[in-house]
Amino acid sequence: MNIIYRRASRVLTYTGPATKNSNQALDFIKELGEQIRTWEGKRADMTFPPTNDSRWTALCEFFERPWPSRLWIAQETLLSRSVPILLCGRREVCWYMVLELVLLAHDGYFPFVIRHSDTDSASSLLWLGELRLAACKTVVRRNISLTQLLRACRAQQCTKTMA
């Protein structure tokens, strides 16, 4: 798989079929991503929609999908030479936009978007992002010990869970 992902000109990560709120979530991710780019690192100037905005609900539902906990997502994210693109139904969004939102939520800007546990999808996204940054040899947000890495990957699934 390493060779396939490294040689691919583009890697698409399929997050599942479109749902009632998925288009709204992807539009919101793109909107917030554009806002983040204009802030130029001035986090104190950031403002967000109120917590009762329906777009937050759509975003939370997108983050709660099972795709971040799938092991092949880690392969796609870590091994691709290009920036992975998330595909939901027929809509696309840049993986780094999603990562930036998860990192901001983790940093407390909108903590209601993610839960802090080893098994929820948004936490899996956070770990994937930090691993991707480390793989790209860019600045890593925090040191990741082998124990933490194993603990984070323990929750990754190789097959669809049975209900």
TrEMBL record:
Domain Heterokaryon incompatibility: 1-76
Pfam families tied to this protein: HET
InterPro entries: HET (IPR010730), HetReg/Transcr_Mod (IPR052895)
PANTHER family noted in UniProt: ANKYRIN REPEAT DOMAIN-CONTAINING PROTEIN 39 HOMOLOG-RELATED, HETEROKARYON INCOMPATIBILITY DOMAIN-CONTAINING PROTEIN
Identification of the protein by name: Heterokaryon incompatibility domain-containing protein
Organism, scientific name: Hyaloscypha bicolor E
UniProt lineage: Eukaryota, Fungi, Dikarya, Ascomycota, Pezizomycotina
